[in-house]
Write a structure and sequence with these properties.
Elements: H1 2-16, H2 22-29, H3 35-56, H4 69-86, H5 92-98, H6 102-129, H7 138-142, H8 146-171, H9 177-196, H10 205-213, H11 220-249, H12 260-266, H13 270-291, H14 295-304, H15 308-328
Helix pairs in contact: 1-9, 1-11, 2-4, 3-8, 3-9, 3-14, 4-6, 4-13, 4-15, 5-6, 5-11, 6-10, 6-13, 10-11, 14-15
């Protein structure tokens, strides 16, 4: 029940700044909208300070993802590409589906297919994911010296926060809704660490549900993702419900397949959007599972822990996002 509530609140925070919208995320891919980058940087910076203090006081524990070099690099590039094409993340796609976006529903189907295929091919591609360098973070490097650790941790968090506002000043946007959303996501994730002893996450939902539906459960990978997947099912259901309720209250609920940014670059053909939404969802989840996480579970949650794997993953996600955006959405 708690994960459903957390998912509902997560959806509300995303909608407060419209971070879940196709136009917002694809706008980041084309360097026309920096709201996603600003919110993520602010969430990481705020979360670095809140979460590490929480863990230092003994109220939570670290959940640092291992640095699987191949999975992090290749998965990050693939994930970023899928994010640009689909225009959603594994968490935001559920919220937008609740708002009536049919392309988000198609993306979910593509994600389920990507999760299933990843489970099936994992034994054949496992060699591409390594080597496993280990689970490294600022804490693993300097945690033995609390004074040094906190002397480095707090300024690092402040640097991320400052970066968000530098980008905002560069963008010259008057919209400040990303500030509440970024801080709110950091606070929410800090609560999730305390109450659920885990970070926020979304991408495990897809292989977990797909494998369950098709009976692909007699394998090591399904056993590995069962705990996270079962938690993320109600979490993302909460996001879906929040998308529906908030959009109805705002009188913004609308059944649509093609959004303004897609129409501007790709036209109004529904079949074309269906094809690319499914393909983008497939690529998105396949890349996420290679890397072991997504925007919320890896970039933000791992970034808040100053995990090396998550920060490197974030760099390659944005590289994949921007490279795909440059060529997939060519400026006329």
């Amino acid at each position: 029940m708690s994960s459903l509530i957390f998912g509902f609140l997560f959806g509300i925070l995303l909608q407060s700044a419209r971070l879940n919208r196709f136009d917002t995320i694809s706008g980041m891919a084309t360097l026309e909208n920096f709201k996603v980058a600003k919110a993520i940087a602010l969430a990481i910076g705020t979360g670095v300070i809140l979460l590490n203090l929480e863990i230092g006081l003994g109220f939570a524990t670290y959940h640092i993802k291992p640095l699987l070099l191949g999975g992090i690099i290749l998965g990050g590039l693939i994930f970023g590409s899928g994010m640009a094409i689909l225009g959603y993340c594994p968490g935001t796609v559920m919220v937008s589906a609740g708002e009536g976006s049919l392309d988000a529903l198609v993306g979910i189907l593509g994600g389920l297919a990507g999760g299933l295929v990843y489970t099936l091919v994992l034994p054949s591609i496992s060699g591409l994911l390594g080597p496993n360098v280990g689970s490294y973070s600022l804490y693993t490097a300097f945690g033995a010296n609390p004074f040094l650790f906190y002397s480095l941790m707090v300024p690092t968090g402040l640097i991320f926060i400052a970066l968000a506002f530098v980008v905002h000043r560069f963008e010259k946007s008057k919209d400040k809704s990303w500030i509440i959303a970024g801080i709110g996501i950091a606070v929410l994730n800090t609560f999730v660490f305390y109450f659920a002893d885990r970070p926020i996450g979304a991408s495990t939902f897809f292989p977990y549900v797909a494998d369950t539906i098709f009976g692909v459960i007699d394998n090591a990978y399904f056993k590995q993702i069962t705990k996270s997947g079962s938690w993320e099912v109600p979490f993302l259901a909460g996001g879906l419900i929040s998308g529906l309720i908030v959009s109805l209250l705002r009188k913004e609920f609308k059944i649509r397949m093609v959004h303004d940014n897609w129409k501007r670059y790709k036209g109004n053909n529904y079949g074309k959007r269906v094809f690319w939404a499914f393909t983008g969802g497939f690529i998105l989840i396949f890349g996420a599972r290679m890397a072991g996480g997504c925007t919320s579970g890896h970039v933000i949650s791992g970034g808040m822990q100053l995990a090396a794997s998550s920060l490197i993953f974030a760099l390659f996600v944005f590289a994949g996002l921007l490279l795909t955006g440059k060529y997939f959405y060519p400026k006329k």
